[in-house]
Design a protein that fits this description.
Layout lengths: L1 E4 L7 H8 L8 E3 L1 H4 L7 H9 L4 E5 L7 H10 L3 E4 L1 H6 L3 H21 L5 E4 L9 E2 L5
Parallel strand pairs: 1-2, 1-3, 3-4, 4-5
Antiparallel strand pairs: 5-6
Helix pairs in contact: 3-4
Length: 141
């Protein structure tokens, strides 16, 4: 699986997770926006179109994806599973280090879960590592 780390998460975590993935089974890869495009700030519709045109992508984001109807429809139609860092991440991660360490703790469970996830769903990743990851259908446009 290819994991796209949204740019609302520290851009340096993708290469770190990609490197650390080599110690986990599965051959997963982690990418940030600069791995796919030459600049940051690419509209969601554009990078989602790229990810949905290729197999085996998963998005990790802090975005709530509760956007206006046209953009919500793009996420719905993309067919790419999304794992949102839950609202408790903002409260519990006191620094970039806290967020990085917790994402690394999650990585083996998250990658295993993504292999079996029903698509397209939005998954809420709580702070504490668990195999029970809540999933939600995208709201209707």
């Amino acid at each position: 699986m290819n994991f796209f780390i949204d740019e609302n998460i520290n851009i340096h975590l993708a290469p770190a997770l990609d490197h650390l993935s080599k110690v986990c089974k599965g051959g997963h890869r982690a990418y940030n926006i600069l791995d796919l495009f030459e600049t940051r700030g690419i509209p969601d519709e554009e990078w989602l179109a790229k990810l949905s045109s290729e197999p085996n992508w998963v998005i990790i984001s802090k975005d709530r994806f509760g956007k206006g109807a046209p953009e919500r429809a793009v996420f719905q139609q993309a067919g790419v599973p999304i794992y949102n860092l839950g609202s408790d991440w903002k409260r519990k991660a006191k620094s970039g280090w806290d967020e990085a360490v917790q994402l690394i703790r999650w990585w083996p469970t998250l990658t295993d879960h993504a292999l079996n996830a029903k698509h397209p769903m939005r998954h809420e990743l709580p702070w504490g590592v668990t195999t029970k990851i809540p999933a939600f259908r995208f709201p209707k446009s």
